[in-house]
Amino acid sequence: MAKSRSEYSRFPSRYGGGNVTAGQYITECLCCLIARQQKKELGDQFWQKAPWDKVFRTQIPAAMELLSRYHPNVIIASLRDRRCWKIQSLRAKWLLEPILKEKDAEYRIQITAPQVIMEKTSTIQQPRHSVVKKKSLITLLKEVENER
User: What is the pLDDT along the chain (148 residues), one digit of tens a residue?
Assistant: First the structure.
């Protein structure tokens, strides 16, 4: 767990570990789902305390295997999908693979979508003139009263 953000450790840990790698972050998300199912709280640096230390160590290789095939954002989006609310392991291929393929297709479309390029406006140009509004009836009446 790195204290500062780097190319390798670029995800912020939600449980007091500074910045973590993609595999560690995905495993944190999985442990969070498991804890929510069991109605338990994950404490600070839960990966060093029983029973979460065993779960964390066994799921890191599974996360790294998924990272070799999919982008980290795709895996995180898949874990946040409502169909994964009861997932217990990243090795549950029958559950996770269809969702991962679906999210991967969405991610690829998002990346290849044409970007809208905004033209820069000149700071030298004079600003547009504001439109003069008509005076309302109440304003006209107040002006007439003030004249008297």
Answer: 556 677 778 888 888 878 899 999 999 999 999 999 999 998 888 989 988 999 999 999 999 998 998 888 888 888 888 888 888 999 887 778 888 888 888 888 887 777 666 676 666 766 667 777 788 888 888 988 888 7
How do the residues of the chain divide into helix, strand and coil, expressed in percent and rounded to 5? 55, 5, 45
30: closest CA among 88, 113, 104, 107?
A: 88
* Residues 98 and 77 sit within 8 Å (Cβ to Cβ): no
What letter would DSSP give residue 47? Answer: G
Residues 75, 90: Cα–Cα separation, whole Å: 10
Angle, in degrees to the nearest 10, between helices 93-112 and 72-80: 120
Q: Distance of CA 120 to CAs 29, 124, 127, 129, 141, Å?
A: 41, 12, 15, 20, 45
pTM for the structure as a whole: 0.69
